[in-house]
Amino acid sequence: MQVASILVAPALLAASLYMVFGRLAVLVRAESLALVRPAWTTKMFVGADIGCFVIQIVGAASLTASGDFERGRAIILAGLMAQIAVFGFFIVAAGVFHHRLAKRPTATALRLDAERGRGWKGVMLVVYLASGLIFVRSLFRFIEFAGPRDGTLMTHEIYLYIFDSLLMLGVLVILIVRHPAGYVPSNRGVKKLRTEEVSLS
Q1: What pTM was estimated for this model as a whole?
Q2: What are phi and psi of 36, to 5 degrees?
Q3: What phi and psi values does residue 72 have, to the nearest 5 degrees?
């Protein structure tokens, strides 16, 4: 239970970043600039994240239920590898969107930046920082489980505190201090803003 809880928790934080990114693209009316259509962004990335989540849960359960460390480790490594691949693609997609929007900012992005003071680039910075910490943490856990059972990373808790707990604390601090909700509202709020724009035009 302890291994499973610590191992899969970042997947839930990653899912919130996927949703923020999708809503941001819709909010600034820049859907055409995204590699993946915003309507599919949340579904695709969260769906893949849930898959990785389940695989890691099964692997963690195998460690304790069957007592077969090698089998459980292999399953966990598969889940972590898939999670790293999905998250890596997300970071690339976010970077492409950022570059395109910076090059061709939409009228809505310019207007909302002027109104709210905290622009879409601030939201993207939060996404990058939080994503970077989660990505490094996932790489650490992959290296940890890929190593021998009696290896340094497996037998010394200090590395878990530094490369897992501390990094996840950093993600929480970033999201608390610069929470994207200050700029990106809920789905209902996004639809409301879009309706107001249509009525004004």
Answers
A1: 0.85
A2: -115, 135
A3: -60, -40
